[in-house]
Each structure stands twice: as C-alpha cells, then as structure tokens.
Amino acid sequence: MEVIVLLCYILLSCICSAYSSQKVLVWILSIALISTLNFEPFISWMRLLNPEDYDGKSYYILMFTLALTHLRYTSFCLEHVEHVTGTSSLQQDTDTDKLYMEIETEIKDKQTDEMKFSLMDAFVYIFYFPLFFCGPIITYDEFSKQMNESTQKPLQEKQMISVAFFALRMIFWAFFNEFILHFFYFNALQHNLSVIEDMDLWTLSGIGYCQGQFFMIKYTVMFGIPSVVARTCGIEPPAGPKCIGHIYTYSDMWKYFDRGMYSFIKRYIYLPLGGSGANIIQKLLCSLGCFIFVYIWHGIEYYIFLWTLFNFIGISLETLGYWIDKQTAVCKFKDSMPGIYRRMQGLVVVPLFVMSVFTAFCFFGGSVIGYMYFQKFIVKGWLKSWSIVIVVVYCCMQSSMDIHDRQKMKKKRE
C-alpha cells in the first residue's frame, strides 16, 4: 500500500507538468500534496496503512520518504515546464549578472538538450536507490547532467581512492555516533524536564552544545553513506554539513548544513521570485516565501513555526546588516578603522547567534525545551550569567570570523 501511495503522488505531479505549461500550477499541486502529510484525515489514513506499526516507526519512515520524494518530483516537474516553455529560474539585474546569466543560459541550453522527461526518466530520478531514503537532495538538472557524464567517463583510480577514503570516514563517524548514543545521554535528557530544570547554567550549555554537534554528525552520516554508493556510480551528491562549531550566521547555516535543500529552495523559489534583485524589500519577501515552504515541508507544528519564524527574522536582520555594510559611510569607517569595525561586528552578531541557539533547541526538543533554555538563560538569568554568555559567545564569534577569513583566502589561492 505504501508503494501505491508513493506512485500516486508521483503520477499526479507528472500528469500536472505534462498537461500544464505554468509553474504556478505545478506549485499549487506540490503544496497540496505536501499538505496531505500535515492534515487530517490523511494522517490517520496513512497510519492505517500499517496496522501493526505500534511504535510509529513505519509511519515516520513513510512520512520522511514521501517528503524527500516530494522535493524530487517537484524538481522534475518544474524542470519539465521550464524545458517546454523555455523559461529560466535565474533572474539577474546587474550588468555583471546579465553576463553571467548569458553564460549560464548557454550551458543550460546544452544541458536541456540532454535532459529527458519521460515517465521512465522520472522514475529513474525519483527512485534512484542510493539517495532514495535519506538523501541528500539533488535537483533533476544536476542529476541528469551527472548521469549523462557518468556513462561517458568511468571512475579513475584517483577518484576511487577518494571514494574509499570518504567511505572510511563515514564508517568511523557512524561508529562514533553509536558510541555516543550508548555512553552519553544528553539527547535522552530532553525527555526528562525535571532533570533539566535542576541543572546549572554551565551544564545546560554543555548539553546544548553536544546536542548541536551530535545533530550535525548524525546528518553527516545520514547523507554521507548514501553518497558513497552514489559516487561509485559517478553521481556526486551535495556535500554533507559543515561543522556548525564555526558557523555564526543564519545564511551560512542554511547554505552549508543541508546543501541539497538549499539548492532546491534557491533554484525553484528564491530566484524565480526575484531574490537576486537589488531591492532589499524584494529580497525579504522572497525569503519569506522560502520559509513558508520550509514550514509546510517540515510539518505544520508549533515548534516548527517558532523555528522558521525566528530563522526568517534572523535572515532578515542579516540582510539588513549586509545592506548597511555596503553604504558609503560604513565602507569608509571599515577602511579607516578595521579593528574597531571587526569588534563592533562581533558584538552585533552575538544577539543573533543567541537567538539562533534558542530556535535550534526548539527544533531539537520541541517548544518546551526551547522555552526552558530561554527561561534559564534570559528570564531567570542575572547580570553575571548574561555577562558570561556575552563574553563567551563574543570570543566564539571572533574565532569563527578568523576561520571564515582563512577559508576565503584558501579559496582565492586555489
């Protein structure tokens, strides 16, 4: 029954794209289909598909698989409409961007000539087994391009060595995850609120940091092991998450944690809505559209709403900050006193980072856990605890900025 449900979702979307030349109609159907995972009576009906699923594991796997499949068939249908109508997802405004768009269009034309849009091509893409259950997401244009190249260029010895080394890394982190789950209980503690309430500030901070690092390593393994199999076939999926220990901005967190989801949102939502424009209001409205989709896709729950809301606020404040940073007076101040500007930048980032931490706790453990951390650190905190938090976070921000600068210099040398 689960397979039949999955096929119905795919066939509906493919029929829509086959008989429609409007991306809007594809999106309407796409939102309608993903909404069936969030509302009754569809939820109860899907639970009935497996009556022996007493602990809810099969239901969770079905929901997760359908959600990932939703991104794939939406990508396929949007690429098909774009291929039929000749429209592009890219929208640029400046002269440099127009030149970039011309080059991109030439490359795109060559790729679309090689892209196929039959029902069998949809099944090959959507049911590509190595990435089917866990991801990461790869858009159809990139998948089709890499699939065509893999048939022409078999893996070389150097590439096989790289894949083998990457596989060893993933095996190590998989065993490390199991070790953590068996001997450390910081994830289980969030289910016992009375224990968390009695913890001091430093212990609570350590548990929160460990939860964030474990979440990153979990997704590193979850994306990494399927990527090993895909790379042996000549498919290069999006890389796994960057270490969150030195990411200090909302935009980098979204860009470098789930890179496949980021590519999907940027290509099919942000750019088509006009997010590349110079107008800051337009950028904020496009970001709002992206986060509305993120909220619906992750599940219409209160804690997901809080997580997406504060992420949107954080992204909006960063966008405003980047706009201020480009103003003439600020540029002159930055050039004349770079040290003072760097310290001011670190101080400005501190409250944004603290807000991102609280929203992450909401995502990890629900709104109750996020509210409890907020109560401990902010409401019940005193001047001493606030001072400690500000000083520690400020020092972490400066270290993260140094790491970021070194990575930028390394990329320039390459």
TrEMBL record:
Pfam families: MBOAT (PF03062). It is a multi-pass membrane protein. The chain crosses the membrane at residues 28-46, 122-140, 161-181, 201-221, 269-296, 302-325, 346-374, 386-403. The keyword S-adenosyl-L-methionine does not apply. It is found in: Membrane. InterPro entries: MB_O-acyltransferase (IPR051085), MBOAT_fam (IPR004299). Residues 1-20 form the signal peptide. It comes from the Eukaryota. One of its GO terms (molecular function) is palmitoyltransferase activity. Keywords: Membrane, Signal, Transmembrane, Transmembrane helix. GO terms for cellular component: endoplasmic reticulum; membrane. Belongs to the membrane-bound acyltransferase family. HHAT subfamily. This is Protein-cysteine N-palmitoyltransferase Rasp. It comes from Mytilus galloprovincialis (Mediterranean mussel).
